[in-house]
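Q: Two folds, back to back.
A: First:
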Amino acid sequence: MGKKRNQYTKEYEYEAVRLMVEEGRPNSELARELGAAQSLLHRWKKKS
């Protein structure tokens, strides 16, 4: 059996992007805190 994928709400994605953009938080630091992959955070930022 594979790993269960996390599903994130739009609000969660928005808040993560806000932390990166407005507060200048590094992608790597934020990924560790949130338990999400750096590539996922990059995708969210690119999408918004």
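A: Second:
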Amino acid sequence: MRNNAIVLFVVSSVSYPKYRFKLNSYSTQFPVFEEYPELAYLDNAATTQRPKAVIDAINKFYISENANIHRGIYDLSNQATTKYEAARQAVADFIGASSASNIGFTKGTTESVNVVAQSFLSKRLNQGDNIVVSILEHHANFIPWQMLAKEKGAELRVIPIDEHGDLNMPAYKELVDQNTKMVAVNHISNTLGTINDIAEIIAVAHTKDAPVMIDAAQSVSMYPLDAQYLKYDFLAFSGHKMYGPFGIGVLYVADQHLSEIGPYNYGGGMIKEVTIEETTFVKFPKNLEAGTSNVAGVIGLHAAVEYINQLDRAQIQSELSELSQYTEELLQSIPGVKVVRLPKHHSGIFSIEVEDIHPHDVASFLNKDGIAVRAGMHCTQPLLTDIGVPATVRISLAHYNDKSQIDRLKASLIELIDFWS
């Protein structure tokens, strides 16, 4: 990989006149593809696009339903409150939570993880204890635990991966012991696409009475995450990676831990009583929601949940599996392109290297052909350091992608390699 200056193929506006394709049945529900039918959007691990139903729900709130919640006694405020709390119940139903009281709203997965680290684990972690994470983690599910371990004099233990990119489960079982106070892993790696066996991970941790935090940011949109079946202690995900808006996320807390989640921020809307000497707080989830809530974001999240619920997720998983296999075969057929690890249990996320070409150059070249991918470390620097790769180009699929877009990707990569040679 070159170390010299990066050559960027920058376009001045969002315009790709070279290509125009018929939209598939899913993509027609997404206004961005009506606006740019030439766009091959392959950056879904960073954020998904939004269907019209989500955009309409947010717009409707701002146009005809706008009011603050929980405080007003007038009709508009009561209506907003009702819709806000209906969204909490919808999210609870979506993941099989026993109650809406298990669901707290945050800014996203990052904040959800930090809440658990600071409000739950901080008061339980002592010198000599350990936290177990995996090398696959996004920084959001790595740094909070690393910082807390340093603060408390605890040990951060890291589960390695094998030569394919799957978690080394025998090593994991050795790392978890009676001093493990938290196991924090993602369901799907945002860089390699590894699908972790979270059912087994949770079961092993629970044999040592260790609670488990699952980062479901990459999986919640299409994979079942039933709380009653999996029995995770904490679950975090973000709206913007499940066809919802930016700035809204979810923290699920299991029944047995509800009383142990204290306030993360302080302010109005989450108190029982305030005196000059003392303040008492309401319980989770309301104790997380200080200040003015992201009401429009919550309503948009509800619309995203409803959108996903009306899909045949089993059918979409099957279609995505086929598209993922097609993508893998095409990428491997291009001389000079290397797929960085191929886990046995894999979702539609691929990291690639193009011989002697910097990832930023690759992404810029693809952009001129209307192909949107991500280039860099993907907030997984420990992982890339571990496997000896400074940066990659990441291709990540969603149900509105199709084989014609992967064909375009292959053609553009071949053109790039010919151009660079």
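Q: And?
A: The first strand starts at residue 40 and ends at 41.
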